[in-house]
């Protein structure tokens, strides 16, 4: 993925982008722009001039697409949906004239969001600094309120999940005072099930998986455990521990979109 940096030019980036497209097109293409930017390529296939991020790259407008996205982010927005809506409102009418569809524009936005950007052009010359240059989407995270910047990160998510894991063990030990169950093993199993559920596509609802498992364990014990006090103790232990695991859901919800975007889950 290329690295982009600010252009010291007072001219509107949208205007510069359109000039770049027009300078790249031949007279045949220009004569058909009034029909929605559709032209016939060398293979005889009718297609739009901008039908992919590769087309944007080919016509050298990728830099303008990235910089316009950076401009919107620097204005103060941090929610991806809001940024996309403003980006679409500003950029899509221009690209639509060249045969760009809604779907293609969404793909262009995603590619621009993943590009790396720096305010300091000189950092690109130093190989040691290249890996430190952040993606455009990470710039938006800097605009978050302080409490979100603290909670919406992998470190906080790990610490919180560990706290839930330990807290569930403590709850299990308190409820199961007679030592019928092993709270550590139960909590380990629940955390593992949450991890597997999140990785397999259960998304933000993965923290509800322990409750489902606890309910199944309760049914199993009620049906097959002949000693009533053990069945009751086991059910109470599993249910209280599963309910405690719900404390992990709000933090996962806060981190979900960031992790999904970064393909962590």
Briefly say what this structure is:
The chain has 265 residues and is mainly alpha-helical. The chain has helices spanning 13-24, 27-31, 53-58, 62-74, 80-96, 102-114, 127-130, 136-141, 146-151, 154-175, 183-202, 209-224, 228-245, 249-261; strands at residues 3-5, 38-40, 46-48, 116-118. It has two domains: 3-143, no CATH class; 149-261, no CATH class.
Please explain how this structure is put together.
It is elongated, with a radius of gyration of 27 Å. Helices cover 65% and strands 5% of the residues. The strands form two sheets. It has a two-stranded parallel ribbon. Strands 2-3 form a two-stranded antiparallel ribbon. A hairpin with a 5-residue loop joins β2 (38-40) and β3 (46-48). The relative contact order is 0.09. With 265 residues, it is mostly helical. The protein has two domains: 3-143, no CATH class; 149-261, no CATH class. The longest helix is centred in the middle third of the chain and has 22 residues, at 154-175.
What can be said about the biggest beta sheet?
Answer: 2 strands, parallel
> Any idea what the radius of gyration is?
27 Å
Tally of individual helices: 14
Q: What is the H/E string?
A: EHHEEHHHHEHHHHHHHH
Structural class: mainly alpha
Q: Which strands sit side by side, in order, in the main sheet?
A: 1-4
Instruction: Identify low-pLDDT runs.
Output: none
Proportion in β-strands:
under 5%
Q: Could you say how many structural domains there are in total? A: 2
Helix content: 55-70%
Mean pLDDT: 83
- The backbone outline, from C-alpha atoms, is elongated
How far do the termini sit from each other? 22 Å
For the secondary structure, the number of strands is 4
């Amino acid at each position: 993925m290329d690295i982009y940096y600010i252009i010291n030019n007072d001219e509107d980036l949208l205007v510069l982008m359109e000039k770049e497209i027009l300078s790249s097109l031949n007279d045949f293409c220009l004569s058909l722009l009034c029909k929605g930017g559709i032209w016939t390529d060398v293979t005889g296939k009718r297609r739009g001039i901008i039908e992919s991020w590769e087309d944007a790259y080919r016509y050298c407008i990728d830099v303008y697409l990235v910089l316009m996205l950076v401009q919107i982010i620097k204005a103060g927005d941090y929610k991806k949906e809001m940024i996309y809506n403003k980006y679409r409102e500003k950029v899509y009418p221009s690209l639509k004239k060249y045969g760009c569809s809604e779907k293609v524009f969404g793909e262009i936005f995603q590619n621009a969001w993943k590009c790396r950007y720096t305010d300091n052009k000189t950092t690109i010359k130093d190989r040691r600094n290249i890996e430190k240059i952040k993606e455009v989407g990470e710039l938006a995270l800097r605009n978050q309120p302080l409490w979100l910047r603290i909670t919406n990160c992998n470190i906080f998510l790990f610490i919180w999940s560990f706290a839930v894991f330990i807290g569930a063990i403590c709850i299990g030990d308190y409820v199961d005072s007679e030592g019928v169950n092993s709270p550590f093993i139960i909590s380990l199993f629940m955390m593992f099930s949450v991890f597997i559920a999140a990785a397999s596509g259960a998304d933000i609802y993965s923290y509800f998986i322990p409750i489902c498992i606890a309910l199944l364990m309760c049914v199993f014990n009620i049906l097959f455990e002949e000693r009533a006090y053990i069945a009751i103790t086991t059910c109470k232990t599993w249910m209280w521990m599963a309910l405690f695991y719900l404390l992990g859901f709000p933090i996962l919800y806060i981190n979900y979109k960031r992790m999904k975007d970064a393909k962590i889950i």
